[in-house]
């Protein structure tokens, strides 16, 4: 029996924080690739510490719905899941290459395939591009457009910026958009000055966050100049200093994110059948679909 557990941060303050996790779990559940699909949270129920006790499968795959490697993926989740013998060196990662580690969860005495976060997986690149297609309602968007991949950034954790730079570089290599830039909230180059970083008249802004919350709904729109007060709303696109900005909202709300979760499980050995093709087909975006 094959089981999938998606673990995410959640929030006591924002009831919408867990919505993407539930949505992606539902999408994967519908494919039938797993006998059961469970969700667990740090700030909501069921908690990380309890979620494995709800799982019946003998092949358990745990996928963290987090953007970067760091405190939660390297310390909190393994500790709360009680993964015996966990050591971050199991991943032998450079901050982007965490793959999977197979360990025994002590309280259920079963092996668990613990995967790296979704945000550093190569498939996330396609989700960012799909997000640009979704917000513009154009499956061919790219020519004449710039793309801003935006992350939090912090000097306290160098891995925070690595995922943003990684995906921005991969998209730039495709030569689909006229310009691709990695911008940050707390590092240079800052998203506040977005028009200064682009020559394109149209720029799609995709925040590399899992859920829409304080940063994506309040900070970024106000800092970029889409509005003075987020409670008053703004148009998409909104023109700021002569640049039309297509604000996409959190990348984690894009339905194709379910594909990245599946890719992580597949890399850890899960048998997915046609699930990957099914998810990409059912979540595609094309004008007129």
Please give the structural blueprint.
Layout: E1 2-8, H1 19-31, E2 36-41, H2 48-51, E3 59-64, H3 71-80, E4 100-105, E5 110-115, H4 124-136, E6 145-151, H5 159-173, E7 179-184, H6 194-197, E8 202-207, H7 214-224, E9 238-240, E10 243-247, H8 257-267, H9 275-282
Q: Distance between termini?
A: 36 Å
Regarding CATH, which class of the largest domain?
Alpha Beta
Q: Judging from the principal axes of the Cα atoms, what is the shape?
A: globular
The total beta strand count reads 10
Pfam families: CbiX
Organism: Halorubrum coriense DSM 10284
Protein name: Cobalamin (Vitamin B12) biosynthesis CbiX protein
InterPro entries: CbiX-like, Sirohydro_Cobaltochel/CbiX
């Amino acid at each position: 029996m094959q089981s999938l557990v998606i673990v995410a941060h959640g929030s006591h303050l924002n009831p919408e924080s867990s919505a993407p996790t539930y949505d992606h779990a539902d999408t994967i559940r519908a494919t039938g690739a797993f006998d059961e699909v469970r969700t667990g949270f740090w700030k909501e129920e069921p908690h990380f510490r309890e979620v494995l006790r709800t799982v019946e499968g003998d092949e358990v795959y745990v996928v963290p719905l987090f953007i970067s490697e760091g405190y939660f993926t390297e310390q909190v989740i393994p500790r709360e899941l009680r993964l015996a013998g966990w050591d971050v060196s199991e991943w032998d990662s450079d901050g982007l290459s965490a793959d999977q580690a197979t360990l025994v969860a002590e309280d259920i005495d079963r092996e668990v395939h613990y995967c790296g976060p979704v945000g550093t997986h190569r498939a996330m690149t396609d989700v960012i591009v799909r997000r640009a297609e979704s917000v513009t309602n154009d499956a061919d968007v790219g020519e004449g457009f710039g793309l801003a991949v935006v992350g939090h950034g912090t000097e306290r954790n160098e891995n925070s910026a690595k995922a943003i730079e990684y995906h921005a570089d991969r998209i730039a290599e495709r030569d689909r958009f006229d310009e691709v830039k990695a911008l940050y909230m707390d590092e240079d180059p800052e998203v506040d000055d977005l028009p200064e970083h682009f020559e394109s008249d149209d720029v799609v802004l995709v925040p590399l966050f899992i859920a829409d919350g304080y940063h994506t709904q309040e900070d970024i729109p106000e800092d970029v100049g889409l509005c003075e007060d987020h409670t008053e709303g703004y148009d998409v696109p909104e023109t700021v200093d002569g640049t039309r900005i297509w604000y996409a909202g959190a990348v984690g709300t894009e339905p194709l994110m379910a594909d990245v979760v599946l890719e992580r499980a597949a890399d850890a050995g899960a048998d997915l059948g046609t699930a990957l093709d099914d998810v990409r087909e059912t979540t595609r975006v094309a004008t007129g679909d």
